[in-house]
Amino acid sequence: MPKRIAITGANGQLGQTLLHSELAESYTLLPLGREELDITDQASLAATLDSLKPDFIINAAAYTAVDAAETHAADAYAINEQGVKHLARWAKGKPVHLIHVSTDFVFAGEKNRPYQVDDPVSPISVYGQSKLAGEKMLTTLLPGKATIVRTAWLYSPYNTNFVKTMLRLMKERDELHVVDDQIGTPCSTASLVGCLQAIVKRNKPGRLYHWTDAGVASWYDFAVAIQEEALALSLLERAIPVNPIPTAKYPTPARRPAYSVLDKSKALVELECPQQHWRSSLRDVLKILSER
Ligand SMILES: NC(=O)c1ccc[n+]([C@@H]2O[C@H](COP(=O)([O-])OP(=O)(O)OC[C@H]3O[C@@H](n4cnc5c(N)ncnc54)[C@H](OP(=O)(O)O)[C@@H]3O)[C@@H](O)[C@H]2O)c1
User: Mind giving me the DSSP string for 259-270?
Assistant: First the structure.
C-alpha cells in the first residue's frame, strides 16, 4: 500500500504544484483545500485527519497576504500560528511526519551573507511574526517530530504571483518601476516540491531546512529576466522600459527584509535535493505558461 500524504492548502500555488508532481506516482495524495480542512477549526481538523490517517502531512496552508496582515493580524495568527498548533496537537503521539513550510520573512534582512538555519530570527512584519509563531508551535509541541522548510519568493504557473503579475503589467503598461534594493532568491514551487519530495523520501523528522533556487537577485533583476525570457517565448509582444527604484519610493504597509538570501547547504548535503539557478526555473515556468 502506498503511503498517504495529506496536503493542506491544496488550492494554493504550492498545493497545486504538489498535486501535479511526481509524488503522485509513488504516494497516495490526499488534497485538502480549505473547504475540506480548515486548519483553524481544531475539531473538524481532528475528525478529518482521524478518518484519513495520513503517514505525512504537508502543510501548504497559510495566510500569505503580507501587506493585509499588518491590519488583519488576528487572521494571520489564526492560520499561521493557531492552525499550525492544531496540526501539531493532532500529530502528537501519532505515526505521522508533519512537514511545514515557513518563510525568509522570519529574518530582519540586515545581513549581507546568506542566512543559515540557526541564524537569529527577528521578523519585521506581522506576516513574518505570525509564521515564526507557527515554527515555535512545532518546535514546542512536536520536538523532533516535524520538519520545517523556510523558502522565499515563490512563484508557479498557478494562481497569482510576482511572475504572473509582471506579465500582466508588461502587457497593460508602457513602463514599469521595480525595487532594486531588496535582495533574495526567486524559487519556483516545482523546485520547492523537489526538496519536499526528498524530505518525504528520507523521512527523518526533526530538521529545519532552507530552500530556494540557486543564485541571487533583486526584484528588479527578476522583473528584467521575466521580460527577456517571456519575449523569447513570445509570451510578450513588445519590450517596455523596466526601471529600478529604491524601496523608499514604493512604500508598502509591511516592511520587507532588505536581504533574505537563504543558505541552502544543509538541504543540499543532507537531502541531495536537485537544484538549478533561478533563471532556469523561471524559463521552465514561462514555458508552461506559453504552452497553455
Ligand atoms: N508565496 C511566497 O512568496 C512565499 C514565500 C515564502 C514562504 N511561503 C510559504 O509557502 C507556503 C505556500 O505558499 P503559497 O505561495 O502556495 O501560498 P498560497 O498560494 O497563498 O496558498 C495558501 C493556501 O492556504 C489556504 N488557506 C488559507 N487559510 C486556510 C485555512 N484556515 N485552512 C486551510 N487552508 C487555508 C489558502 O486558501 P484560500 O485561497 O481559500 O485563502 C490557499 O489556498 C506558505 O506557508 C507560505 O507562508 C510563501
Answer: B-PBP-HHHHHH
